[in-house]
Amino acid sequence: MDYTGTELAQGSRGWAVLSRTATLLALAGGLLFILLVLMSLVSIVGRKLGFGSILGDVELMQVGTAVAAAAFFPYCTLVGDHLRVDIFTEKLPVAVKGVMDAICEFLLGAVVLLLAWRTALSALHLEETGDYTTLLALPIWIPVALLVPSLLLMVACCAWRVRAALGWSRYLGRREQMAVDHGVSK
Fold it and tell me: Between these two residues, 177 and 93, which has the higher pLDDT value?
């Protein structure tokens, strides 16, 4: 069930800000992936032609991929494109499905908030200990800290989806009840 295209979302300032921010972050993650692929291609071709590879290409690929992948999480959350198995809830009333979706989004948001907190603590610890990558001496705390904004935005998107799911559930529940009261089939 998608709550993002409903009248509940349209016209809301909160929706517009979340949508734009999540979209820009996802586009930045996509651009980072493209740059990583280009770097990898240059490194592979250079190695094959005897010019050598880019120093630290594997390190850059590892940290860049983590940051780029995390950038997609808020957008995927906002538009509801996470993996979902709804075979057991298929026959339930829409209002019940909305409440169940709200509970799932709340739990996802809580887990991601915990993950953001622990990731931020990890970044602080890595800065204190001065951990660096082997070849480039890139401080490891920097890419770890870059994960935190994506995770926090994902929590905000989860909160939005909880609100939308509960509102949509009430709206559809009232519509279904009116249809039953007036003898109109769905």
Answer: 93
**The 3-state secondary structure of 100-152, one letter per residue:** HHHHHHHHHHHHHHHHHHHHHHHHHHHHHHCCECCCCCCECHHHHHHHHHHHH
Cα separation, 169 vs 178, in Å, equals: 14
Q: Are 72 and 26 in contact (CB under 8 A)?
A: yes
Strand, helix or coil at 165? helix
Token output for 173? 């529940």
10-20 residues labelled b (16+ CB within 10 A) or e (exposed):
eeeeebeebbe
Name the strand (E) or helix (H) holding 30.
helix 13-48
Q: Kindly report the pTM of this predicted structure.
A: 0.82
163: DSSP letter? H
According to the model, what pLDDT value does residue 45 have? 94
Q: Which residues contact 86 (CB under 8 A, 6 or more apart)?
A: 97
131 is written with which tokens?
């951990």
Q: Is 132 helix (H, G, I), strand (E, B) or coil?
A: strand
Q: Average pLDDT for residues 152-179, to the nearest whole number?
A: 74
Is the dihedral angle over the CA atoms 84, 89, 92, 96 positive or is it negative? Answer: negative
